[in-house]
User: Fold this.
Amino acid sequence: MIRLQNVAKRYAKSGEVLAHIDMQLDQGEMCFLTGPSGAGKSTLLKLIALIDSPTRGNIYFNQRKVTNLSRKKIPHFRKQMGLVFQDHRLLNDRNVFENVALPLRITGHSPRDIPRRVRAALDKVNLLKKEKAEPISLSGGEQQRVGIARAIVHKPRLLLADEPTGNLDPELSIEIMNLFLEFGRVGVTVLVASHDMQLISRLQQRIVHLQNGHIQESNLVSDEI
Amino acid sequence: MKFEQRSSGSSLNISFAYWIQHHIECAKKSLVRLLANPFSFVITILMISIAFTIPAAIYVLFNSAQTLAASWSNEKQITLFLRNDVNLQSAKALRDKLAKRTDIESVSVISKDQALQEFKQQSNLGTIADSLPDNPIPHIVIATPAKSVTELSALENLRNELQQLAKVEIVQFDLIWIQRLQSMLEILFRVLWIITILLLAAVGLIIANVIRWEVASRHEELEIIRLVGGTDAYVRRPFLYPGFWLGLLGAGVAVLIVKISGLIIGSSVQKLMTVYASDIQLASLPAGLVVLILVLGGLFGAGGAWIAVRQRLRAFA
Assistant:
């Protein structure tokens, strides 16, 4: 579904962040992207989400080259993915329901359809009762779950998450990761960046390890845990 | 696999209905947002309305002056004041002679008695005229040039020829200063254009500046909407409407200002024009121009906002 071919990214200030990335992610595959901070995890996700474009190499989405996609075509591409950010990026001027409804409103879903889908998404992250709450009144874990609900409400085929558990305690982190595993099980392609090796290694999924802009190993961890 | 595309007609209809709905929603919400800050709202509206009032007012003045000039230049009558020793008989002979010329359409004679009578009636100076021992007014011949003679130089030649006639004392023919007035009006018209363009640019910039602050304060919202798949148009829309409203309302206030000023000045202008024996009135804003001002207001408002958002949008992928 996603294929990166000889991708490199160089920033004027910080130099080469990604050196030579070849990677493939199949439809319905679940993958964790790990490595020390500064290894280029976020950059890699940004390239896939077309927030940034690679200095070299190509990115394919469903066999279609999306590198240097025109500004106009990017939204259509983004509608097929869900993005989860470490800092949730919720809009504080509207309640939980409206935050989750945002992708549906943007894509022009029928207003009759929206409440049903928003509630289904909130139900998945166990926040059905908080739909009227202001994001700011929620705990960090709850805010992150609202962010996840927003990322999945439009049933994306690809879910990208950048350190979704970065600010959460271990228990909440497991809860969030289990959510991602669940989406993976229903056929969503999931790519989660996290530096929390301990947590990830327990999930028994494919792990891509980034170091100094290179992929160090790409393997299925079959741990004893 | 290809990108999913909504292809069925019904979902397209839903999208279109939603698109309309989003426009209405943006229009309403932006108005509410503007009104939430009434002070800066009023200040901005006034700035914009002043920018529109100036060219509109100049246009009105220009238009009035032009109608006036046109009406004056249509009165292409050449007045020949005859020498005092010319009697009515030879005045009539002159009339008949001039009437034969091809460049003259009609000629008439006003006898000195008639002229005095008219003077008494028109000028309220009857008593003074009565006190005069003699009628100081000579016989007058009025010649109207043929319609075919329109060139200023031809009229000039005609005037000079008539001046040469032995019986004629003075030829009065005021075409030149009308011509001068018209060329001055032409310059004024160009100035009007320049001022209009400059002030329209000012309207765009005023609004762009207001919207720039609005965009800056909602920076995060823009970025998030873009990240969850909002198109540039979708992100832009909520900002185009406040620009549109500011421009439209500013233009509306400008129209009101011009109308009210017209009412205040109008009656004095009419008095002045009666003195000039003219029934020209101060032109009002024609309906077409009112519509144009409102359209330009809305257009430059939305345009200014567009520029302001565009600058911000470029920061996001």
Remarks:
- The longest strand of chain B covers residues 104-110.
